[in-house]
Design a protein that fits this description.
Elements: H1 12-19, E1 25-29, H2 35-48, E2 51-55, H3 64-76, E3 87-90, H4 101-106
Parallel strand pairs: 1-2, 2-3
Length: 108
């Protein structure tokens, strides 16, 4: 018997790939210049039902206001033409960047 606990590391990309079996998923690692690509992926995913995984959101600090507006629009347009299979997944290192109500809406 060992007193050491085995620490497992949560890997969001691995988790998302296991969840998505029959649905397309686009993974975008945010950083310089990837905001436009992320917006295009979200727009396409809304129509096609693809999952959009935006990782490293902490690296796109200047683009987070745009993401906030996108999420606010999604929340306000829930009954419109959004494919029910669409998922928007965000990953980030822990930080103090997410303080808006839109981030709270994502958790509902």
């Amino acid at each position: 018997f060992s007193s050491r606990r085995r620490h497992t590391r949560f890997l969001p990309v691995s988790w998302a790939r296991r969840c998505v079996q029959e649905t397309a998923m686009q993974i975008i690692s945010l950083g310089q210049g990837q905001g436009i690509r992320a917006e295009e992926a979200i727009t396409q995913g809304l129509q096609s039902g693809a999952w959009v995984f935006l990782q490293n959101c902490h690296l796109a600090r200047s683009w987070l206001k745009n993401l906030e507006k996108i999420v606010e629009n999604l929340v306000s347009e829930l009954n419109q033409d959004i494919n029910p299979k669409f998922q928007l997944i965000l990953s980030s290192l822990p930080c103090l960047l997410y303080t808006s109500d839109a981030a709270d809406d994502l958790l509902c």
